[in-house]
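In this section we walk through a basic example: taking a raw amino acid sequence and producing a predicted 3D structure, encoded as discrete structure tokens. The instruction is simple. Fold the sequence below.
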Amino acid sequence: HGKENVDSRHSRGRGGETTRFHTVNVAQPVRFSRKCPTGWHHYEGTASCYRVYLNGENYWDAVQTCQRVNGSLATFTADQELRFILAQEWDLEEKTFVRKDQGRFWVGYQYVITSRNHSLEGHWEVAYKGSSEVFLPPDPIFGTAMSENENVLCAQLQCFHFPTLRHHGLHSWYAENCYEKSSFLCKRSQTCVDIKDNIVDEGYYFTPKGNDPCLSCTCHNGEPEMCVAALCERPQGCQQYRKDPKECCKFTCLDP
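The resulting token sequence is shown next.
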């Protein structure tokens, strides 16, 4: 399966017949030290990678940029994940920020307005179905003025550049006009991990973690793709046997 370089070599066997040997070279899983692409921060608690993009974009453009790198605007599953994000030394000193000690970025929530009486009443929602809804933000600070017909605002997380403020978890949530331009935080899964917990580089064959050690896939953008499964014949001369959960077509005979 996959790319194969077949090197046919000939030698003379007994009786003068030609014996042909085929040497097949197939890319094997490799290990490397990082679990996320360059420029991304890894968090073991969710096996995810995070990156702040400083090229100011509106919310909808930010969504598409994150999707192009096999991710989405970040949502958070627990307080621990949010504290990890706040503690990172993101490059927040950008000329588009009002103050150099703080910065805001789009994240994957939207504030749905349900009433416009004396104050804007509403609730947070995860922007995209399929995102985890374990953690939702508290009541927001409302950003720039908006038109009367807008019923949805988009979430900005504000964090601080100073280390003491970062490590104390000081932050704010803003409900902002979705067409304002801002930096944004993307989240994606870490790179491929094989059945033996090895990290697999882009483009290499590997067996994903799961119940089938005979599945071989290609690592593409941190996901298994173009998977092929091998079928194993049962071991000969053995009535009772056990499959090896991490080796394809490897059995242990349980007969007396």
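Looking at the output, two observations stand out. The chain has two domains: 41-92+100-189, 192-253. DSSP finds three helices and 16 strands in the chain. In the next section we compare this with other chains.
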